[in-house]
Amino acid sequence: MSATAPDAPSGPPAGRRRRAQLVLVASALVVVAAAVGTSLAIATRPIQRPDVAEGPGSSVGQPAVAGQQVTRAPAAADAGSAPAGTGTLALDDGDHDAYITRVDAASHRIVVDVVQVFHDTEAVNEAVADGRSPAEAKILTTWVRNENPRLRTLPLAGDVQVELRDVCGEGGGDRDAQLTRLAADARLNGTYYYTLTVDDGTVERIQERLAVNAC
């Protein structure tokens, strides 16, 4: 009786299967490495920030940061006074006609409203030009025009001269009394105007004048 040959093994040899498994593992590692590299590239890529527009609330060329103090251009000074440190005077040196709207005795300052003043025939003509009837204007000896509402804060000199007068032209009183009256007269709108003598931005002299016809 002849011997029977052994059954042939089914499938590829073990060595070939192992090589195929190694190829699959290597391919998987390549895919994983590529994915990790892509993620790292995305994570470390510089972020493109939009340019910061110049405008209110941010410094020129710099982004506004939450909680950061941002410097803005200074607003117009209150009462028309010159900004501190600019060297700009509220009024040039010389004589200026103005209403005094406030006297601040504590800080030794006054607030003024600069005006134009006309007398006699010129006062009549300018009053008519400003809307007064000729019948009303013809009796005027003084006309005060106030076109600009701007107020200016001026310091008083330590030895400022204050020359006030009564309605009918009677002057007098010591300096302290005159300063007290100046504050009171400043509240009489349209009754008085003042000629201010300014030197280096400081009021050296105040002369009270009638803005209405004298007695």
Key words describing this protein structure:
215 residues; alpha+beta; OB fold (Dihydrolipoamide Acetyltransferase, E2P); 4 helices; elongated
Explain what this protein looks like in three dimensions.
By secondary structure, the chain is α+β, with helices and mostly antiparallel strands. The chain has a domain at 87-115 and 153-210: OB fold (Dihydrolipoamide Acetyltransferase, E2P) (Beta Barrel). Helices cover 26% and strands 25% of the residues. The protein contains four helices and seven strands, in the order αβββααββαββ. It has helices at 14-44, 120-129, 134-137, 175-185; strands at 94-104, 109-114, 116-119, 142-145, 152-163, 192-199, 202-210. It has a five-stranded mixed barrel. Strands 3-4 form a two-stranded antiparallel sheet. The radius of gyration is 45 Å and the shape is elongated.
What's a quick, concise take on this entry?
The chain is of the alpha+beta class and 215 residues long. Helix content is 26%, strand content 25%. A five-stranded mixed β-barrel has the order 1-2-5-7-6.
Oligomer classification:
single chain
Would you tell me the structural class of the helices and strands? alpha+beta
| Arrangement of strands in the largest sheet | 1-2-5-7-6
Give a short account of the largest sheet: 5 strands, mixed, barrel
Coarse morphology: elongated
Strand content: 25-35%
Number of strands: 7
Termini Cα gap = 165 Å
Please report the first level of CATH classification, the CATH class of the domain at 87-115 and 153-210: Mainly Beta
